[in-house]
Amino acid sequence: MQLWNSNNVLNKKYKKLRDMKKFYITCFTLLFILSTVANSQLSSMQAGLRIGYRGGIFYQLSHDAGNAEIAYNGMLGFSNYGVQVTGLRIVYEKSLNSISPNLYFAWGYGAHAGFVNVDRAYYYSDPYYYNRKYLCPVIGADGWLAAEYRVREIPLNISLNLKPYIEFAVPAYVRFMPFDLALSVSYVF
Length: 189
Fold this sequence. Notes:
Number of domains: 2
Strand order of the largest sheet: 1-2-3-4-5-6-7-10
Radius of gyration: 20 Å
Strand content: over 45%
Oligomer: single chain
Shape: globular
Number of strands: 10
Number of helices: 1
Largest sheet: 8 strands, antiparallel, barrel
Structural class: alpha+beta
CATH architecture of the largest domain: Beta Barrel
């Protein structure tokens, strides 16, 4: 009887990588379909990188709506050795025009879902440690506050943003993160 089978371990790791690849392809396909369907109603699109605690890559579609600009942001984030997909509705107001015509204030809301890798759960604030890490599904609600500077000479946006969130991972935890501060840089096309 063989206790250790290296082929079995390699097959499990290969299966995980293959599943993650399918997940990424599905996310980018959905973003592409969204961008082509909504392209006729848009004033701009942008893709960029968010650098912070819950960092990742994002794609954003926006259009003018009266005195404001409405944007829909899809983000693929990485944290806790897991992956989360976030969708946000963001409203850009021109309330900071008195400081600079290129500076915008933004606020918004959204939700996220994905997976995290955890090695403990909490029961009445007492930690219970597992003997290995488990892949747990996570779902949560997000907020958004930002100050964005738009460089007109080159198609570049730089944003300092705060994305507070609350999330639930089954069966591991409930987490509230009020200060997920990050810097975002995006290319506008």
